[in-house]
Automatic annotation (TrEMBL):
The keyword DNA damage does not apply. Residues 379-615, 996-1234 form the ABC transporter domain. Keywords: ATP-binding, Cell membrane, Glycoprotein, Membrane, Nucleotide-binding, Repeat, Translocase, Transmembrane, Transmembrane helix, Transport. Pfam families: ABC_membrane, ABC_tran. One of its GO terms (molecular function) is ATP hydrolysis activity. The keyword Nucleotide-binding applies. It is a multi-pass membrane protein. Residues 24-344, 674-961 form the ABC transmembrane type-1 domain. The chain crosses the membrane at residues 21-44, 103-127, 178-198, 204-225, 286-304, 670-693, 713-739, 820-841, 898-917, 929-949. Belongs to the ABC transporter superfamily. ABCB family. Multidrug resistance exporter (TC 3.A.1.201) subfamily. This is ATP-binding cassette, sub-family B (MDR/TAP), member 11a. It comes from Xiphophorus couchianus. GO terms for biological process: oligopeptide export from mitochondrion. One of its GO terms (cellular component) is mitochondrial inner membrane.
Amino acid sequence: MTETQHFLYLKFRFATWRDTLMMVVGSLCALIHGSASPLMLLVYGMMTNTFVTYEVEVQELKDPNKECINNTIHWTNGSIYETTDNTTVSCGVNIEAQMTMFAYYYIGIGLGVLIVSYFQIVFWVSAAARQTQKIRKTYFRKVMQMEIGWFDCNSVGELNTRISDDINKINNAIADQVSIFIERISTFVFGFMVGFIGGWKLTLVVIAVSPLIGIAAGLMAVARLTGRELTAYAKAGAVADEVLSSIRTVAAFGGEERETERYDRNLIEAQNWGVKKGSIIGVFQGYLWCIIFLCYALAFWYGSKLVIDTKELTPGSLIQVFFGVLMAAMNLGQASPCLEAFASGRAAAKTIFETIDREPEINCFSDDGHKLDKVKGDLEFHNITFFYPSRPDVKILDNLNMQIKAGETTAFVGPSGSGKSTTIQLIQRFYDAEEGTVYLDGHDIRTLNIQWLRSLIGIVEQEPVLFATTIAENIRYGRPGVTTEEIIQAAKEANAYNFVMTLPQKFDTLVGECGGQMSGGQKQRIAIARALIRNPKILLLDMATSALDNESEAVVQEALDNVRAGRTTISIAHRLSTIRNADVIVGFEHGRAVERGTHSELLEKQGVYFTLVTLQNQGSSNTPNGKTFEGYDSRLGFIQICQQVTEEGPEEHEEPAPVARILKYNRPEWPYMLLGSLGAAVNGSVNPIYAVLFSQILGTFAVQDLNQQREEINGICILFCIVAVISFFSQFLQGYAFAKSGELLTRRLRKVGFQAMLRQEIGWFDDPRNSPGALTTRLATDASMVQGATGSQIGMIVNSLTNIGASFIIAFYFSWKLTLVIMCFLPLIGLSGVFQAKMLTGFANKDKKSMEAAGQVSSEALGNIRTIAGLAKERSFVESYEQKLELPFKSAKKRANIYGLCFGFAQCVIFMAYAASFRYGGYLVRVEGLPYMLVFRVISAIVISGMALGRASSFTPDYAKAKIAAAQFFQLLDRVPKISINHTDGQKWEIFKGEIEFLNCKFTYPTRPDIQVLSGLVVSVKPGQTLAFVGSSGCGKSTSVQLLERFYDPDEGQVLIDGHPSHTVNVPFLRSQIGIVSQEPVLFDCSIAENIQYGDNTRTVAMEEVVEAAKKAHLHDFVMGLPNKYETQVGAQGSQLSRGQKQRIAIARAIVRNPKILLLDEATSALDTESEQTVQSALDEARKGRTCIVIAHRLSTIQNADIIAVMSQGVVIEQGTHGKLMAKKGAYYKLVTTGAPIS
């Protein structure tokens, strides 16, 4: 019990007494609503009896010797007429008056249903809306209180989906679904009650078989919900993921076709499971219908015995019992999808409430902690050790000690990842250190009030985050309640005033999402103004000018120099020119402050600072702009988040794909589709046949001759059995045939889609939208969605058409007048069917649109949480979010009313239809002598087909979704890659020499167009020579290799290969001449031999060659020592092997290719000394007689290269042999003599 109590508490813990009251009243209404259908059966039963007695009377009175006196039939001579078994026959039924009364009953029930179902929905939905609103507010507020470390461990995307999807799931579970569940259960109970009141024997017989129906209905629901295809697809998905994650390796070794084959082989399992699933659903459907028809046969046969032989039942109570129990069984089955919603809501609630109950370690909303009266600005770091919570195994700061004096400018320098930015984040108290303390003016900052502490600090980051509002508002974020004059003053100090005044709207200009409308320099200056307006005691400049070009840098730098005066300033530097005039320079390495002093003191030490200066000076003497030596920092993450947000917008509105094109892909399966359609046609005609048989049974009760009556009933029951068997097979046929054609289509689409992905140029994969994860999901889900637009859809259409067609033919044939009357209601009945189907899926999707505004606030807030925390602006975002929630909340309440009305209308329309049509039917029976059984036949034929139609539309997988998925798919198929890997495009030539020239190459990565990677690279290498690139990370060494492989083409300039410009060369041909060994070699999840054979995908490499290559790579002995030798599996990404072993397999793989050009990208950097020597000798072996480009990181490994090129900021600053460069005493000389680290 505690489990359920806990569950209810979870669900409704945010309910006020008012909500509880609404939910209780709503539940009562649902109970009453549930009893309506069984009530209707009572009326229906009475009505049947009336019709039957009337019919008997009519038949008796056909004899001219009988007449009706005092409601009893007499002979014309006045004696009472008695039937064979000595009973009298009553007469004088006023059929129209009776029917009018029944019509009023129906209308009464209908109105009752309209009212209670309206309240049932309105109360539940609005109570749920209020609770959801409360949960959203509480959750967002709590998330904004969390410390930054928590955000490192929870991705922003995940939090956003939690705010939208998970809370919607909770909403679904506590809204209409509960009331519908109660209503269904109530129908279940009342249905049985009606049955027992009518006749307990028959009820027991039907109950005995009804579990079979309930089970079938439940199984149907379950079978739909299985997620098994995805697990079956998992293997192929893993292949796709592995290939797409290591796309560069696949491209370099030309393995595209081989991978497509491998992927296709793994798709078979998913295909088989899909067919299995289709067949299972077919069997279930068939079983359900078969059981239902057999039940009909049994119940009518036994029931008619009770009516005719023992006279226990009237025909009316037979119908009442039978339908009562049937209704109960079906409703029990349909209640199961609601449980599904409860379960997912409960799971979602668990994660949401866990967050709500979590206490943040650093709570920015708390008022605890001191506020000092006077702040000088002395900072001290004392024995600080620190790990990021998301990477507890990497020590970022290692026992760091340092002091920063008030009023001085301190500069931090050091390679990437040495902990410079981390110290800044500790000063802002985004994190607390594991060990050690940070002191401000001698106070431990953990004892100070957070909001107050952060208000002392102004920070300007490398990638400043602006919010999507005006310039003035962005500056105002710096400090609450500033005047316009102060804003202007701050803008002037930040050198921003002039450019702002040139904009048309001046300070009211919108900066766009993430400041997208502004240039880097402009954003930077607005951020500086925002920092200045705080009048901070401590100014933190984290690479504040790195992203700028020279001109804007000078301007921004000047602004920074002006404002540094008299404040404690910490500047993380990247261009040494900007920090020469700092008071103190602190050099960082591996999380320690290894050196401190002024510029000149540190140069004498020849340590970290010295290395950086050397590389940079050398660079700046040759190039106009001394760009960063620090390459891209880890902070690119932020830009990408912003880019994603801005770019996703326009993509969504895909034109739905034409169905014809989808079907074209399905053409080979036409026999299956034909079979399926045949099955569907048979299934469609089942309902109308049922209507005919059902009314026929009612008709037999008016037959006078008992023997004839029995014969007719037995005949009809046998017919029911035949229909049962046929429908079992046809349902199975429809399920199986369409599943087969659909799965073959899915497999074909997946294969084609995967091929299309592998055709794209590498730059396409850099786009965050095309990350391996996103692409694998697209393959998994889009393709299987498309199938919903073909097979099952066609089946659906055929089924519905035959259903309607047959029903109408029957109805018009037997009574066209009555048919016309009912047809007026048909659109309404169809609508109500559609509506009930919608009910099952719930109404949450409508919320999504109105939630978008709030969603934007939340995603902006979560995406830029650091900036917001730094500005201590969490509260204003929480307020703005809550404000944005008001509108959706109001619309949700309004929608609850509309929804309630629609629901009520849909529920009551069928009662109204019955009222009208039976009343008119009574008229026709009396005036035109229409046999009453035809009234039933026509009405049930049409009503049943209407309901079936509505229901059917629900079971079609989402058609619109399928078309959009298809559109995305075709968009991928139609995309023309910028670099074609076709075997026919471009030149090939006979004798490939391997001469390479880079002519003035300029290049930026497509995803980071603002960072110039190569700015005019000029270098050449003759066939057979070895060229070595040396330089710090991010100077463009690896990029030049990627241009050579034609993963990218240069923006300007050319790469010449044997004198041919690279963009005219056939790509597979070019790549087949190049072997590459990279720093982190990518191995595939197969055996060692297969990995080596991967080197040449154009042919099957013989084992001898593999062994030969392995020997050259010094790998053979190690492999022979393994138990399975060359058949040893290397594990995912080669995880079973050490780095040195992986490296040697990669070298063997490159040797098997027998390439003319060998590219070694830091091939030995990740190794310890021993394995390095082995690998190095293997490489020297492999280099013989080939053109070779080496990217070095240890200078010792490249001294014997023919040309050594020293690179900095995307250009070569000096080149020559080792001897020449040593004599020149330039940058290379300094690097070698000081032994300073490079990368």
